[in-house]
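cache lookup: miss for this entity combination. No prior model stored, computing from scratch. Input as submitted by user K.M.:
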Amino acid sequence: MARILLISLILLMQSGCMDQKIVEELGFIHTIGYESIEEGEDIGKLKVTVSFPIAETLEQQTNTTVVDTPRESMLFLNQKTDENLVLGQVRSILIGENLAEKGVWDLIDTFYRDPVLRPTVKLSIVKGSPQQMLSKDYPNFQMVDSVIEELLKKEARLNTIPEMDILKFARDYLDDAIDPIAPIILQSEDGIMSEGIALFSDDQLKTSLPEIKARVFFLLTGEFKEGKLLIKINKEENVLFSFLKNKRNIKVELNNNQDINVNLSIELKGFLLEYQGKKDINNEKQMAEMERDIQEYLENEINEILEIMKEHQIDNLGLGKYIKRKMDYHTWKNLDWPKSIDRVNINPTVTVTIIDTGLVK
Amino acid sequence: MYINKNLSEHIKGRLDDCDDLVTRTFPELEIEVLFFGHLVGEEELRNNIVQPFSNIKNDEVINILRRKEFKQEEDLNSMVNGILEGKALVIFKNSLAYTVDIYVPKTRSVSAAEIETVIVGPKEAFIEDIGTNLSMIRRRLKSDSLKVVSYKIGTLTQTKMYLLYIEGITSSVLVKELQEKINGIDIKGINDLNQLVQYLDKKPLSIFPQYFTTERPDVSTSKLLEGRVICLLDGSPYSLSTPTSFFEFFQSPDDYNQRWLLGTLSRALRFAALVITLFASAFYVAVSMFHYEIIPVKLLHEFIKSRSGVPFNPLIEALIIESIIELLREAGARLPSKIGQTIGIVGGIVIGTAAVEAGFTSNILIIVVSISAISSFVVPHIIMTASLRIARFIFIILASIAGFFGIIFGFILLLIHLCSLKNMGEYYFKPIAPLSLKDLKDTIIRAPYQFFKK
């Protein structure tokens, strides 16, 4: 009995140890946006915008503050509202383009360490200002933050932008053989739209890939398992190619640790959804020709992506991972990846097989 | 004490002021018969006493008294006790006494089980007469290895009690231990087996029932076959079985009478119900007081909306609603069944809807509490249900103190307690702790009979 009393006493005293967060007193931040201020007296500081729904009306409210460090912002933001703002329900983090160019690791690190935040919080780069994106009134929808979440989810499913969360970003950042990527979204006239992939070098935004190249990029990462590909062979010919199978193979050959050859082979199998042009899709010879055309087109696109990566000395595809496996640690360290990516010969080969052209023959 | 003279006076003196004592005399035969009229059967009285002593001569009396149903008594105490037990005491020549058992208990007839109902299987339940109850078991177990040991419990009530076991299956140590325990009980009287069970409890402070009681003769028989000891008590429509396991309370004869797959599934359902009834309300309290992070975003808005008008904090809110449910349950149990239905309607529909509309509680909590109340009824044994109700309140309070940490803390304490409980030398939480994989096939699942070895 004495034992039970002691246990209950200890437990009762524990109640002071954990801060209660009663659900209706909280303001759940849904989306949080960061940008750096480029002009004016606050130059160099962070502008933090949060959006959260008001419980009774479910209207979205936004709040903005200007601070020096990411975490400081919570103090100032809390002063501006009657609700206790909490981070536990954050679904996406928007980072302004200008801040991303300066480097985002400090920011990600803060979130990554916080146990309250789920590691699957989506990360995206905003062309323009996150504050404007969050606080504008859109005619077609009420809650812009949930629209952003849905848009990111949908576009990632359709393989036009990567699904990037803070866990993945941190993993890619901390791995020296790969550079992180992130989706780009921008504010259009009447809504939000996705704009391809942002390519990082370490934690700094370097360049971006437009949407069409983004799909080819996913073919290279092997993450694009199933989907549609719009191929413009030339001005008259458009092919909508839907594929069922994508096999990616990376082979690295080393010659005395000097010449590094990477053979990137992609095997695509699929069927034509739509074709506009002069070829007869029932003619096998012409179809073989079309397969070659598609291959050529894809190889071109891949080469362009590789050129971009070489130009900026970045490796967002993770080719470094395959090279790292082939050499010992010391050589790998000396290689200074990904700065040495232009020393590597990358040979992409694409094989396309059209297995079906439609119901009617 | 052997008394030769004035036997009748002595016995009447002992039973002084017992106006229900009936005396019949056959003056010409010098025979006096004493009995309690409400304990004996009229037909038995006529056949055994009235008829034999009618129209006979003096010298024939001795022959009648030699019949085997006439048992000569020499001790005054046993004569009085005989009368109290429903025998008729025949006094011859005011010096010789014989008892004739003409006891016919006035009890209800055997009827269907009301608490432990089944869909498929025998319907009959024990009644208040121990003889009938024993006959129900004997009828199911026609074996000479079924042993019945008789006891008397209660210095005043002298309640008859039978201890049943099967020789060869039940360990003799167990039987001996239980016998010692029963002999150790020193009370004036006992009304029901469920009271007796509490005298036998090893840990009276535990919230869990430590002996398995059932009102079903078929369950009792199967317990006997499993090597357990059964106790029957006169005046109680229950039997107890020991050693008891926690998991016995989650078994129903339906599991065995229906096909094994259905039995396994319904058993799984019961364990799910156990988890729900223990943790659902506590989970609500923990989430709304500490762990807002885990609420799905689509539910979040509705959650805040329903909570925002409520004036109490989640703990008070949950305790109020849980108490209302307890009130309803208690009211429903005490009321006659015809009025009992009204309680359901008033309580469930009127109070439930009105409480939400008045902003008194959130509708999500109403759902949570109702589900956990329904789940508690899925557990087949009403005594275990009551224990779980108490545990539920403890979990709610723990959740309000430290959230999930508190719930886990309480759960571990509960597990430690369950594992430490012992019943007649057997662990209460067997076969989970100590683990016995062989026995799991009849505890967690109900495997096909072909899988059981004899």
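stored under new cache key. The mean pLDDT of chain B is 88.
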